[in-house]
Design brief:
Length: about 325
């Protein structure tokens, strides 16, 4: 057999290299960052812009803030809200914020100004959710739930759908004792509906994963022991049933208890075993600043990879 000519050999080699290169670049990745429970102190207020710059330098496409942008004892004034709006809006990366208890449910405390929590929630809606877009110098479009709950958002990054929920700690603003507050009775069914809509969209679009962002820690340990906090019962039961029926991966991001962790605490109510496609990420929280990079990797079996970044002052 005659050997191929030199030009032909070069073409064959180039084609083979092209196939090899295509094979090595087939995997796609997307990056976003999770923060929460910050800033609480004057120090954190000064340092947060630098931490946001650090996140941007790591090529994150998005930042999610899982609520609590102030200490619960700081007065819930319009001035504080406007300051935090400006602070988060200065991010060079699109930033999605979720309301936390320190910004509305805890505002009834005397130290926080003895406000009406519902009135403070309305102010948050006016300042942070007036338009269907994220915060940040560069923004992304988001979908908002209709019916007076514009803080409930949905958006996409790569093969993943994101859903944000107004679920504050502690106990989802259920109230003291057995009688739930009127506000909880009105909001909780809306929360559950938005969560179900998110999973339905993920099924319909054949999404590889769904990310749920909220502030409150729903108390997985108590739920496993059969001592579920009443304010989170509907939510956890819905999460369990939807996660078990979903073929992709489920990631829940929350703050509230200031204990950064990544685990699989949600259990199958039938077998008692961890639901294998469900992961919980809790953000850093005062007095420790930091962020978690989440890498969405289309070739990684668990879809989500994590890099934990404690903040170090420059």
């Amino acid at each position: 057999m005659n050997s191929p000519s030199k030009p032909t050999a070069l073409k064959l080699l180039a084609a083979a290299f092209g196939l090899l290169l295509a094979g090595t670049t087939a995997a796609e990745t997307w990056r976003f960052a999770a923060i929460g429970d910050t800033p609480y102190s004057d120090y954190e207020r000064r340092e947060l812009p630098r931490m946001l710059d650090d996140i941007a330098a790591e090529h994150a496409s998005l930042i999610v803030h899982a609520g609590d942008f102030k200490d619960s004892r700081l007065v819930c004034s319009d001035a504080v809200f406007l300051d935090r709006r400006a602070l988060l809006d200065a991010s060079t990366v699109p930033l999605v914020y979720v309301p936390g208890d320190n910004e509305w449910t805890d505002c009834r405390q005397l130290a926080a100004g003895h406000f009406d929590p519902v009135e403070r929630l309305q102010k948050l809606r006016q300042l942070f959710f007036a338009e269907p877009r994220s915060l940040g110098r560069k923004t992304i479009a988001v979908e908002q739930q209709a019916g007076g709950y514009p803080e409930h958002l949905r958006w996409r990054l790569g093969p993943v759908i994101f859903v944000s929920l107004n679920v504050p700690g502690p106990n989802n603003h259920f109230g003291i004792g057995r009688a739930p507050r009127d506000e909880y009775l009105a909001r909780n069914p809306v929360v559950i509906d938005w969560l179900r809509q998110g999973f339905a969209a993920a099924h319909r679009e054949r999404s590889a994963g769904i990310v749920i962002v909220m502030q409150g820690n729903p108390g997985f340990k108590h739920h496993t022991a059969g001592l579920t906090h009443v304010g989170y019962r509907d939510l956890l039961e819905t999460l369990s049933s939807e996660a078990l029926a979903f073929p992709g991966q489920v990631l829940l991001i929350h703050g509230d208890t200031h204990w950064q962790r990544i685990d699989q605490p949600l259990r199958d109510p039938t077998t008692g075993r961890p639901i294998s496609n469900f992961t919980r990420l809790e953000t850093f929280g005062y007095p420790l600043m930091g962020w978690v990079k989440v890498i969405v990797d289309s070739e990684y079996p668990q879809l989500f990879r994590f890099e934990v970044h404690p903040y170090r002052r420059r």
